[in-house]
Each structure stands twice: as C-alpha cells, then as structure tokens.
Amino acid sequence: MTKMDEGIRAAARQLLEESKVSAVIGYELADKGRVRPVVIERTEDVDRLIWNEDCNLNLVNYLHQRKMPAGKDQPIPKTALVIRPCDVRAVNLLISEQQIKRENLKIIGIQCAGTRINKKARITCSFCQERIPVDYDVLIESDKPIEIPTESDGFADIQEMEHWTAEERLAYWTEEFDRCIRCYACRQACPGCYCFECVAEQVDSHWTSIAMKVPEKMFFHVMRAYHLAGRCVLCGACEAACPMNIPLSKLNRKVARDILESFGYKTGDDPKHAPLLACFDPNERLHI
Amino acid sequence: MKFISYKTRDQWVKNLSAKARVVAPVDSKGKIIYKQINSADEAVWNFEKTDLPAKTWYFPMTEPILYIEQGKQTKLTEAPVPSPVVMFGVRPCDARSGLILDELFIGKPPIDRQYANHRETLTMIGLACSEMWETCFCTAVGGAPDSHDGLDILLTEVEGGYALEVLTEKGNKAIDGVAIEEKDLKIPEATLREGLPVVRNSKEWSTLFNDLYWKELSNSCISCRACAFVCPTCRCYDVRDELVTIKPGVKNYERLRAWDTCTMAGYRRIAGGHNPRETTEKRLRNRFYCKFMYYPEDFGPIACIGCGRCIEVCPVGINIQEIIAQVDHLLDTAAVKA
Which of A186, A199, B126, B184 has CA 20 to 30 A from A51's CA? Predict the structure, then answer.
C-alpha cells in the first residue's frame, strides 16, 4: 500500500462513515496488475481503493448514472470521486451544463504525476502544467516527484499534421479508422458524451448508416470531435478505452487548440463559465 | 507426418492467391487483424491471438444481404455468393466458434443463406497454439490449443516450418500442388494453464438470475460494445434498408446487416420507447446468460470459446473468467446453505 492509497482510503472511509456520500468511485487492482474502476458503497470495502499511473479513465463519466434520483421521493445520490486534475475540469463542464450539482459531489483530488495508456505516457500528460486540480475537497499528494514540463504546448503533433496535404491526412485517418469496430467505447467512456440518443444510433438517420465501413466510422469520430468542441477536457479516456489503439485525442486536441487560439478558452476553468458554444460575445474576435 | 517449410508456405500463399482471396493475420499499428493478402510477407506468422476474431470473414461486420430497386416494379436481388476465401493463421478456438455459430445459422431451418454461402466458400487453415496465453481459458469450455474442430488443415510449428494435418476434403483441395514433405516429426505439446474456473451448467446458472452479484458487477460497466465486437461467438445483428442512389423514377436500396449487441442501451428499445433491458445490470447479465444458459438450451453448445479477448478489451476490467468463477462460488455457497 502506497501513501497515496492510504490517503484515498482514509478519505473514502471518513466520507462513507459520516454518510457524506453513498458511494466512492475510484480504482482497484484487478487480475495481472491491471486496474479498473470500482464503486465502493461499504466502509469494509474501502481498502480495495488504489492509485497508480494506469488509472487512466475519467470517473466523472459515472455521474451520469447517478445524476437522477434513484427512485420516487428519493434524493439525488451523493458521490465521491477519486479523480485527476483533467477529470475535475469535466466536473466543471457538467456543472456548467447543468447536469450535476457540486453539492452532491465530493472530490478526492489527485496531485497527478501523469498517467499512462498501454504502459506509455499519455501525450497530454507530458506537457501538462496542471498537476493539482482546480477544485477538490481532499487532496492526495503524489508520492512521485512531479516535474512540470517547461514545454507547455502539447500540440506539436497537431501542428505537424496541419502541414500535411488533405490527401496525406485522409490516408492517415483512413488507416486508423479502418481498425475502428464502432464499439462506441470512446463515447461511452467520455463524460462529455451523454446524449440520450447519439446521432450515430438514430433510427433512419439521414446522417449516417449502420454500416461499419470507413466513411461511417470517420463520420462518427469527426462528428464526436465537433460535438466536444469547447467541451473536451483532454482527459484521454476515449483513447484509454479504445480497444483498437486509435489516436482519438488527436482530433480533440486539434479542436481544443483552435478554440484556445481563437477564444483563449480552456474547458473546465470555472463551473460558472457558460459553455463556449452556448454564448455569444459581439466583441469577440476570431483569430482564424 | 506431413511437413511444410516456411519457404514452401510462402509459395503456397502465392499460388492460392491466384485462385482465391487469401486472408491472414496482418499487423495494423500493433493490432493483429485478418486481412486479405497477396503474398506471405504481408502477414504476421508469429502472434498470440488476433485482436479481432476469424468470424469477421464469415459473419462480416457489415454486408449487404439484398439489393432493392424500387421503381414501377420493385426488383429484389439477393447478394451474390462470395468468392472463395482461404484463411491462414486461424487459432483452434476461433475455428470452434464457427461450429458454434453454425448451430444457429445453418443448424436447423430456416437456413441463413448468406451465412451458409460464406461458410461453404471458406477454407480454414489453423495454427495450433504453443501455449495458453494470459487471458486464454479454452480448456475450461471444451477446447484445446491443438483442437482440430472446425478446421480444414491444422499447422503446428516445428523446427523450420510446420507439421501439417489435413482434416477435410476442402483441406485436401487447398494443398493441391504444394510441395509437402514427409518427415518424422514430434509435435510439441502446448503448455496448458492450470487453475481455470469451472463452468456450471445452464440449469445451475438459472438459479442465480436474481442474485445481487449482477448489480454489483454492472456498477462499473459503461455499456459499450467492445466485448461483443471482439467476441467470436456473439452473433446479434441489426438490419436496415439504406438508400444508396436516387435516379428519376428509381430508388436503389441496400438491405444491410451490421453487428449489434445486447450490451448497448438501444439494442432492446422498442416502439414507444419501452426498454425491457433498461439497466446496465440487466444488459450485462443478459450477455453472460446468453452464453452459458440461453444458447446451450436453444442450440446445444456454450457460446464461449475461452479466447479471452473480451477480458483484454474491456475498458473497465470486467472479466469473464472471474464471472464464471464467481458463479461457481455462489452455487457452492448456496449448496452449503441448503
């Protein structure tokens, strides 16, 4: 048990014992050293909670299952989450979109030394300047030294891609999306994707078909990137969930970069900010 | 014993590709997928298991099953019979999954003609496993790393090439004109895994239908389709008529079938919006009951071949081996109590 595990367990135990929350959602160790999300509802189970650099999903996603009352005349359940700084931005996103209320949530924030996907450092982690969440109730200090990178621009690969010709980009993405199996793991792992009915699944959709061919797959992913414009927190959960190793965050990072340059807007700074594409400022200048 | 060297294998692939579509495991940025090849060097021959099942070549992710020309008179045309496919590098578990799916699609009428066409034109050349890998549990569900079931030819890697066993008439045809040698060979035995869970029978599973375990298990499920879409025995599909072209007076449609799965919320939603499997718990439970209770009761075999692909892809670590073991444990506990 590491110091971080100890801190998480102590915080979780206290929250459950004092009935501040009905569940703590964090990670546990699974078979063969893997980690997986776990919902802890009893104090005797808190010792299952752990943290390590493979905890790469965005647990804010689970709040969509807990944002409505569990039954008639019942309150909205209160939840504690063990989450990274980027995940906390998704909390702010969902508050600003009026999906959740901060009062129903306790944040066990991780001082994050970066996470990995398939044992490799996530690209956004290697540029991340934000190691302490913008909001938390309890902060779990990292047991690893944290070096904040001097290079803050995590968009080098995107800039490179911007210089490619349209044909080169198409060839690149055709190869990537050829592997896609349209399993929707990316969408289901994303806290920002919570439409009751996704465009990709509409019956008699005029936008796409049920075929699992490259054009439909490309449509799905590009559409998803656009629907997350100004909403993606770059947590990388989509990429972590993808069973086919598709570099999905490249699409989101391209959009995030354009938005940062055009509007100076970074998703999840403040829960009071209106969603970017839901507000209009006549004085704003588009730098594109 | 028949022996084929690596060099002869490459020539064999070349010869076959003139007569049929040759399919083999190909590396696509680290993921191993069955794709059509023209020469042996496009394929990977050293791999554990492919990331997508062999099923993709006889029950494709998407395929047209009917063409509809809607004009003054509506004309229907069935999809043509596919040209022959010879598949290399089929793991024995994947080959068994074909036999399991056959029970449903062609085992008894009505015959699924499209599926039958694929199966009839497909030759499967197996590659025996040297060991059971990290998530493998084929021996717990009736398979083996060197099983012959469902294959036309089985290759087992030996020094310098493969020991070759012809198992069917199709297999005989496939080696026609190939320089096969006769050699004294000792086929190496695969390393098996110990401590695998015991799969209980469908009647026993039925007693646990309302157990609280399914709720607990589903707490972390995010209702994606990854497990089902890498599964060699999942076979649900959706059918839609998709508009292809419009010309004056004529509309052309394709009747497509594409994979679909019970783990996703929309699968069971019906007209009026009612959903009999509204919760994650009910959907996830259905997936496992389908494999271990409904399918064996309706068609005979268990709908799981122990490849472990679902364990590898699940973003939230839901593990079918753990579930089988837990069911075994719950039944034991219930028996003790009784």
Answer: A186
B223 closest CB neighbour out of A188, A210, A243: A188
The rounded distance, in Å, linking the Cα atoms of A99 and B191 is 52
Tokens representing residue B313 in the block: 């892809």
Residue A177 with chain B: CB contacts under 8 Å: none
pLDDT in tens, B180-197: 999 999 899 999 999 999
Cα(first)–Cα(last) distance of chain B, in Å? 55
Cβ–Cβ below 8 Å for A210 and B240: yes
A53: β partners? none
Inspect the interface and report whether the beta carbons of B238 and A184 lie closer than 8 Å. Answer: no
Q: How far is CA A102 from CA A92, A267, B52, in A?
A: 9, 17, 42
Q: How many CB atoms lie within 10 A of CB B243?
A: 14
Nearest-angstrom CA–CA distance, A137 and A105: 9
| Alpha-carbon span A117 to A12, nearest angstrom | 26
What does the pLDDT look like over B114-158, one tens digit per residue?
Answer: 999 999 999 999 999 999 999 999 999 999 999 999 999 999 999
Q: Do A185 and B222 touch (CB under 8 A)?
A: yes
Distance between CA atoms of residues A60 and A237, nearest Å: 10
